[in-house]
Amino acid sequence: MLRQLTISEAICVGALCIFAIGAAHAANPAAADRKNEYKLAVADADADYKAAKEACKSRTGNDRDVCLKQAKADHVKATSEAKAHLESKSAMADARDDTVDAQYKVAKEKCDALSGDAKDSCIKQAKLKYHQ
User: Fold this and answer.
1) Number of neighbours of residue 32 by Cβ within 10 angstroms
2) 3-state DSSP call for residue 130?
3) SS3 of residue 23 by DSSP
4) pLDDT tens by residue, the chain, 132 residues
5) Which end of the chain is less packed: N or C, by CB atoms within 10 Å?
6) What is the spatial distance between Cα 27 and Cα 103, in angstroms, rounded to a whole number?
7) Torsions phi, psi of 113, nearest 5?
8) Which parts of 1-132 fold into alpha helices (H)?
9) pTM of whole model > 0.85?
10) How many CA within 13 A on the CB side of residue 62?
11) Distance between CA atoms of residues 53 and 41, nearest Å
């Protein structure tokens, strides 16, 4: 059996709806702030990466390769962390994985300067350290 609402009940229901809508909109500024922080962090990471690549130009050979890999690894780490902060806890785990993978690539590039058993040992150590 349905009954009609009294005027005071209708006013209460209306006030609750308005409150709920206001509460939902109050959450959006926080999301907008996170998105702005993300954009700023990515822009900073891009600028740092560009500067680091520029600094690597003065180097030669494997030293330059290592420098470029390190610059890329730092960029990947910064952008992954920014994205993870924007999204969720599972994204934080992905960011850690991306960072470890990028650091492994740097370590592997450093091993390229070696040869023979030293290089094999270096790569084995990198694989152990970075869980590859």
Assistant:
1) 10
2) coil
3) helix
4) 566 767 776 575 666 656 656 655 555 566 677 788 889 999 999 999 999 999 999 999 999 999 999 999 999 999 988 888 887 766 777 888 888 899 999 999 999 999 999 999 999 999 999 887
5) N
6) 37
7) -75, -15
8) 7-56, 61-86, 89-111, 116-129
9) no
10) 10
11) 18
How far, rounded to the nearest angstrom, does the alpha carbon of residue 9 sit from its chain's CA centroid?
49
Tokens of 131: 């869980």
Q: Which two tokens stand for residue 3?
A: 């009954």
- Tokens linked to 31: 């999301």
- Residue 124, both tokens: 């084995």
Two tokens at 9? 């009940």
How many residues would you count in the chain? Answer: 132
Q: Two tokens at 116? A: 């023979």
Show the tokens assigned to 24: 């939902």
Cα 62 from Cα 45, distance rounded (Å): 24
**What are the tokens at 55?**
């600094």
